[in-house]
Design a protein that fits this description.
439 residues, mainly alpha, Proton glutamate symport protein
Length: 439
């Protein structure tokens, strides 16, 4: 390989450099000017809104193009079943790990706290809207209108619409090919838009970190700090051990994979939202050797059905509240709670705060044994825990897509090894391709 194809971009042209610099500046700003920093959350919200602007169209186009290009609906159905099976197993593993850790460490034991119901009022209202049962969850998967899927907040609705459109397009046969080519061109356009939007990421990261440090920096004490540290360590163990073993089975090193997606992880760290990197993660997984059809279906689905970090948070948060309020929860009730969360976690979106609302919704179903108003105990540190949730969710989705790609026989393992050994080749090859088109 020539020097031209292996040369790295200058540091100042790397997105991760600017995101990392923004995070450091945000921390300093939050510590030195906490009151001003507490008002900077709008910068992070601005970036998240820019991402949301293009996320739904990208998911729609990627899923439609991916499934239609399979040319075989039976093959697409098999892919979907394998993805769902994997996601359910990983959700169960994450829930069990969270349950075991909180039972071993007992971070809330001995507090015997009482909680004012008004302290958690806003969270409980949000939970009430999200905890109406399995029937309402299933109904919420389908939008009230075709346009409504793109204007709402549930990405899973976009996925449902895309699947039905892909089925209809596949049924057109030769007549559908011009439509498919047009959608492919539109998809390329949208990825160009997201590439431009991502350069706003440092601003979002700065605002998100500055707000967090400025608003909550002095409130992390005692048992709450213990819970937060325990949660971070649990997520780390899950990533290194569980996902690490799965990655090894697929044929890659988890640490090399983390290095490959470091830009995305830094953006998630700054914004506390896994949704902000969804389009970019899909692009990188495809560049690493996973087929477009697998990535197009598994990543968007995983964002609603494979939230590993959120699942760990749910069981740890629920048992912490029970311990802190002096409620002894038997193993039978814990198993029941776990099984309920296996379902309720599927409605959690990959955005900041969704984990807290899902936890409150789950506790509402067990209000006689765990006081749902106890959610107020962890509201103050939820913003800090959301970073670990989002990071674990993103890593879990990325690893899951590569697992399913191998399961389907649609993973170029030589390409994956090449990219993970030298991640810079992805950007270099893209630039080279753009130069060829220009020429």
């Amino acid at each position: 390989m020539s020097t031209a194809t292996t040369a790295r971009k200058p540091l100042y042209r790397q997105l991760y450099f600017w995101v990392l610099a923004a995070i450091v500046l945000g921390i300093v700003f939050g510590l030195v000017f906490p009151h001003a920093a507490a008002g900077s959350k709008w910068l992070a919200d601005l970036f998240v809104n820019l991402i949301r602007m293009v996320t739904a169209p990208i998911i729609f186009l990627t899923v439609v193009v991916g499934i239609s290009s399979l040319g075989n609906l039976a093959k697409a159905g098999g892919l979907a079943l394998r993805a769902i099976a994997y996601f359910i197993v990983m959700t169960l593993v994450a829930l069990v790990i969270g349950l075991v850790v909180v039972n071993v460490l007992h971070p809330g034991s001995g507090l015997n706290l009482t909680v004012d119901p008004k302290a958690a009022d806003s969270t409980l209202k949000a939970a009430g809207q999200a905890s109406e049962g399995v029937t309402d969850f299933v109904l919420s998967l389908v939008p009230s209108s075709l346009v409504g899927a793109f204007t709402g907040t549930q990405l899973i609705q976009v996925l449902v619409v895309a699947i039905f459109v892909a089925i209809g397009l596949s049924g057109l046969g030769e007549r559908g090919k011009p439509i498919l080519r047009a959608l492919e061109s539109l998809q390329a356009l949208m990825f160009g838009v997201i590439k431009a939007v991502m350069w706003v990421a440092p601003i979002g990261a700065f605002g998100g970190i500055a707000y967090t440090v400025g608003a909550f920096g002095s409130k992390i004490l005692g048992s709450l700090a213990f819970l937060m540290v325990a949660f971070y360590l649990t997520c780390l163990v899950f990533i290194v051990v569980v996902l690490g073993l799965i990655a090894r089975w697929v044929g890659f090193n988890i640490f090399k994979f983390l290095r490959y997606i470091k830009d995305e992880l830094l953006i998630v760290l700054g914004t506390s939202s896994s949704e902000t990197v969804l389009p970019r993660l899909m692009t990188k997984l495809e560049a690493a050797g996973a087929s477009r059809s697998v990535v197009g279906l598994t990543v968007p689905t995983g964002y609603s059905f494979n939230l590993d970090g959120t699942c760990i948070y749910l069981t740890m948060g629920a048992l912490f509240i029970a311990q802190a309020t002096g409620h002894d929860i038997g193993i039978g009730t814990q198993i029941g709670l776990l099984l309920f969360m296996l379902i309720s976690s599927k409605g959690a979106a990959g955005v900041t705060g969704a984990g807290l609302v899902t936890l409150a919704a789950s506790l509402s179903a067990f209000g006689t044994v765990i006081p749902v108003v106890g959610i107020a105990l962890i509201v103050g540190i939820d913003r800090f825990m959301s970073e670990a949730r989002a990071l674990t969710n993103v890593i879990g989705s990325g690893v899951g897509s590569l697992v399913i790609a191998r399961w389907q026989g649609e993973l170029d393992r030589d390409r994956l090894k090449q990219v993970l050994d030298n991640p810079s080749t992805v950007d270099v090859e893209r630039d080279a391709a753009e130069q060829v088109v220009t020429a």
